[in-house]
Amino acid sequence: MTVTAPSRPPSAAMRGPARRRGRRGLLGWLYATPTAVFVGALFVVPLLLVVKMSLSRWPLLTGDQGMNAPDNFTKAVDHRFFTDSVVFTVKYTVLATVLLLALGLGLALLVQESSRWNSLLRASFLIPSALGLASASLLFYVLYSPYASPLAPVMESLGFTFLGSPTAALLSTTFLIVWRYAGFYMVLMLVGLQGIPADVYEAARSDGASRWQTFTKITLPLLRPTLALTTVLCVTGSLLAFEQFYILTKGGPDNSTITVVQLIYMVAFQGQNDLGVAAALSVIVLLALIVMNALQLRAFRSEER
Amino acid sequence: MVADFRSRPTTVDEPASPGTPPAAPARSTGVTIAGIALRTPYWVFTGAVGLIFLAPLVWTAVASVAPQAGTNQVDGWGLGNYETLANYQAGIWRYLANSAFVSLLTVALTLLVSLLGGYAFARFRFPGRNILFLLTLAILMVPYATLLIPLYVLLNEVGLQNSLVGVALVLTMFQLPFATFLMRISFEAVPRELDEAALVDGCSSFGALWRVLLPAVKPGLITVGLFAFLAAWNDFMAPLILINDSERMTLPLAVSNLRGQVQGVVDYGATEAGVVVLALPCIVLFLLLQRHYVRGFMSGALKG
Hints:
The complex is a heterodimer. Chain A is an all-alpha fold. Chain A has 13 helices and no strands. Chain B has 14 helices and no strands. In chain B, helix 8 runs antiparallel to helix 9. Classes of the chains: A mainly alpha, B mainly alpha. Chain A: Keywords: Cell membrane, Membrane, Transmembrane, Transmembrane helix, Transport. Chain A: It is found in: Cell membrane.
């Protein structure tokens, strides 16, 4: 909805306010100019450029070599790690989303009541989220190492390492992510929980509903908007996972933990140095993400009816 | 919206006061011995969960000064690992300065752009207003990596390759959806009469913003600045892709690279020290500005 000036014939009475509105419009643009410059130059232009790059031969060192569509897309899909990375990313996304939402809700229910003890708990759940993902990954890199970890004796006696097998690496990385983000999802869940009116709970209690019934019949349905938001956030974030695997596993062991974004980075800057194929992969990820988010929002909306 | 939330009976953003003894939860009926006995398992359980979240941080801080084989701190406690960190390549002061520069520039640009933009979106009607606002929010929808590849090419074109200014510009752009949204609702929460009165009194629109509205939106600015700082200080992927000169690396990159410094043998002690240096400003800011931090998260939730 854009506001256009009314196209009535300019009468003497109209000229004043119309001119003032024009001046206000101009002033509005003046204040919005920095935003427009940033969004235009660093978002819209790169977005158009990535589409152009995906349709062109574009080696890292020599730059644009002209159109070659659709070569980059066929090369991207035929990449030896393409299917594996998609499957792994989806697997990781499902695992991380289920765990984070369940734990976020669990923690929120645990510290829902207002008290000093609960404030202290909330703060301790939230502190890891102030750390950067890279810092948290470096921290767990040491914590998981068979040499420096305080758990090294446990690893030795049980004969496994946290990052040694594909399954262990996936679970260990997911644990790091849950540690880092659980507090964030707890806050979002708390906001949702506090949006549920207290008298609904009162009514349920006076009807003799059990705790479990109250949770499944009242809390969960009324929390749906929050669950929709957190699911979209968590799925989007997990599908774009990069730092945690780049730092913790470097895609290993046996290339079993390569995510899609890591594949983009590898194709662009590590060895293959093909920005065209990397751009094609980026466009595929972008489209997949838009479709996924639209589907999720529609699913949550249709359930509402 | 935020203010409305905070008036509800249970508050999320009540700051924790570290060091105070745990108080009985509000709902417990009186301080009876039976009541305390009933709540003890709850305290033990929740306390244990809280400790799981704190333990990795505490352990890292302790381990960074503890003796450890294969590090610069083999015998006794001390700062050997921090010495390794200090002497790594260009030296930690260089990387700290780089990180501080990128973070402060990002904070300054984000505050300036979102203050003016939020004002424009909240108080003015101009052609293209809604399109521009939606475009700004759309930045959230697009993956980081999708934009960093073309940004790498673009910054090369304009001579900002391998530049900390380029990194700060990119990081500012990624902050704009959250910052603009938050500043817009901050301005909209201020009664219009306030700036209209100033305009009638002969203030220019900028005067009204600077003298009358700025104090009113200060909490929003603190939240925006805090998030911009944390994002820029901690960012890994933008400098990883945009910087290739080791002199210009930011701290997260330097600590990440330091792991493999001696022929592939990882110096875990120096890595621990690096994590402590990286985490310390974030944790201090979190403890000081917890209320603003939580409110930032909540405004994200209310958007949905």
